């Protein structure tokens, strides 16, 4: 599995967990953190 596949998988899992319960702004903040983590991993 390459980095882009892993990134997509992580995003999909997080999106499924967050969509029902989390306000949009908070969800965006979490995705921003995910972006930073993914960038750091590269």
Summarize the structure.
By secondary structure, the chain is mostly helical.
What do these coordinates show?
The chain is flat and about 30 Å long. The chain has helices spanning 3-18, 24-41. The protein has one domain (3-41). It has 2 helices and no strands. Helix 1 runs antiparallel to helix 2. It is an all-alpha fold. The chain starts with a helix and ends with a helix.
What key attributes describe this structure?
mainly alpha, 42 residues, 2 helices, flat
- The arrangement of helices and strands along the chain is HH
Binned, the helix content reads over 70%
Outline type: flat
Spatial gap, N to C terminus:
14 Å
Q: How are the SSEs ordered, and which strands pair?
A:
Elements lengths: L2 H16 L5 H18 L1
Helix pairs in contact: 1-2
